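Morning. Coffee machine broken again, so started the prediction first thing and wrote up yesterday's gels while waiting. Chain of 110 residues, entered below exactly as on the submission form.
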Amino acid sequence: MDARGPSHAGQGPTHVRSMCKSVLRSSIMKLSWLAYAIDDERKLQGADVDTLEEYMEKAKMMLGKATRRLNVVYKQSKSNLMLYVVLFAIGLFTVVYVLKKLYRLGRWIV
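Came back before lunch.
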């Protein structure tokens, strides 16, 4: 017999084998609990990732809507609508001013 134990497999003190079995069983139980914990964590992180993807899609849609609105506003500001409104107001005031002056001139002549 050498320092490592008996030379025949399966022969040796019974308490050593039972202790090895209990250590192996406890290690297997710990590993199975760890595997369950890892699986639960994976599921939770997967749900979080799915939620984040949904929020990103919603944000992308909202950004697209805002971009379209800004493009519409930009195109409207590019048109000369404001210039036409100002020119119309100036022309209207000019016509009213000229008619008023002509009316006064007509009253002065008569």
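Residues 11 and 84 are 107 Å apart (CA to CA). Going to sketch it on the whiteboard this afternoon.
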